Amino acid sequence: MLFMENIKMTIVDVLEENALKYGNEVALVEINPEVKERRRVTWKEYELIESDPLVHFRREITWKVFEEKADRFANLLASRGIGKGDKVAILLMNCLEWLPIYFGVLKTGALAVPLNFRYASDEIKYCLDLAEVDVLVFGPEFIGRVEEIADEISKKRLLYYVGSNCPSFAEDYVSLTANCSSHFEKRDITEDDFAAIYFSSGTTGFPKAILHKHRALIHSCRCEQAHHKQTHDDIFLCIPPLYHTGAKMHWFGSFLVGAKSVLLKGTKPDVIIKAASDEHCTIVWLLVPWAQDILDAIDRGDINLKDYDLSGWRLMHIGAQPVPPSLIKRWRTIFPNHDYDTNYGLSESIGPGCVHLGLGNFDKVGAIGKAGYGWETKIVDEKRNPVKRGEVGELAVKGPGVMICYYNDPKSTDEVLDKEGWLYTGDMAMEDEDGFIFLVDRKKDVVISGGENIYPVQIEDFIRTHNAVKDVAVIGVPDKRLGETTAAIIEVKEGFTLTKEEVDEYCLKLPRYKRPHEVIFTTIPRNPTGKIEKPKLRKMYGGERLVDAQNKG
Length: 553
Description:
alpha/beta, Luciferase, domain 3, Rossmann fold, GMP Synthetase, Chain A, domain 3, 3 domains, five-stranded parallel beta sheet, disordered C terminus, nine-stranded mixed beta sheet
């Protein structure tokens, strides 16, 4: 079988196999709910089709066209001297062109370097320089940011623009690739070749460049498919940004079996539910805020599930951050037939899957699970010796998906990667009597108050059980006597009110040392992958203590 571990292959081979087996079947669909197109438009190589002419703008490509587009871009790169060891950065919003461009890069033997779409101009330049990028591919949303640095970055790089009205400082990807051959002469690429540089999310500092080989990418395909049992008949709804390992590596499970996937450009609850219904999706991966928004919309009556056909939806899974057990309990009451899984991972371990809960383990909701397919785990103390089961320590993982290094940063590499291949994650965890791992908190997020370690995630999970709380983040704030105390930053649900006194009373159920000393009502900032931006919150609220914090939501 294609996904067997003993078959030596790369994901480039998987694309070629899919094009041969399923050439005329739909590979990718793009839905942009913001565009209201009322006519059918035909482009040179694929059609723009509307599922609902008043709501959705829909494009799709087959597996054959997918590979042809990848080959055209590979030929363009090769004609400019780009090949093994070179690096091509991708700065695009999710779109139908994203993945063919990614695979076009890999076909040449070059490294794909996806960039976060939230980067400002100086961050884009920083990442291009750190990764020693040779080519930048960017879309219309980034013209202004790229233009600010175009004079500097174009001196030693090619700039390709994907979209209409190409700016003068770049070359037109569409017209150039249209004139390239749709067949690329296959190059000798193995699992041991370098494949990609991903950037860390930056939640604990400025992004680091993470180097991976093809071995890591193909293992992520096998790992995801082994966990969620994708078949060729499944349909995956992909919403998170493709620049991040999370979205792409979950898609890899569907890719491995040639299954159709839908790229949805929108995160509103009704948009997600409508896309799942219209496209008959069987697997949907959600971030915590989106799942909470869907449940809240259903509770308010904004979404009537009787208006949709969700009969094929078999699996809902969540990753990128700890998942509140209260959320899954709510979800199961509304969607009792859904299977559920949560996945843990880092870009340093090629995204989700090095730990996963496992289908059907509803009695362990709250855990991140056990070592994933092909992975090993251990929990260690500060000297990196294993702790006893039930004790809190740092989670370490080992497997085929561990990064090679932080590119051009040996010091940071040595801090997290040992000579035996163990990656020290910086996440504090505990293993229960059944071998399930519970994430306690980020090592850097632990609050030490009066010598007592306080793990914010535990407090956050408790506060989220209050029916007026939409989201919560707990951080440490300075205290002259104790060193640090905790502050709970709370986002209140629409239509609800909440006071500090009510929060204090609710938290009486917690041990005294875990009760937040401060309560601040505001919006919780999250990055595109759903992680709470605690460095931003600490900068806002962790310096001088807020004596006149807002007391009412």
